Amino acid sequence: MFAITERLLLRPGWIEDAAALTAAIGDREIARNLMRVPWPYSQADAEGFLTQPADPLRPRFLICLRDSNRLVGGIGLSGDFEAELGYWIARDHWGRGYATEAGQAVIALADNSLRLPRIKARRALDNAASANVLRKLGFQPTGKRVWSASLARGTMETCLYAREREEAPQALAA
Distance (Å, rounded) from C-alpha 154 to C-alpha 72? Predict the structure, then answer.
């Protein structure tokens, strides 16, 4: 599965991406805000991630620049019962709107193709940039904070968010 935006190509990761993925996510400032990313992040971690089977109901993508295919981050849906949005952007690409742009594409897929009724998200309490992204994507804070396991930090306090699917307006009967 692929998605194309104005500046980005969202695509599956391939084993050939292992070195670029290791370099992009192997930054402690990125790993510390994620739950399932170990620190330090190794080439073997990247290879293990890239060889996991794809789940069409929980797609995940590498975020690449459309004009060069350069890896700038990752985004996807996870979760057994309810979909949860997760994303990260390599530090040298922070502040350019890539997380919001990629998030809009994934949400359109979740709304229009997967027809997911609700998507949840969480962010580290100390990650204000992620709060801004979630707000721009239409997520609302639930008011709940929970401690979440983090492979890089051990545990971290997180804020929970949710977004309900936007239904297309119904045509009026004549």
Answer: 26
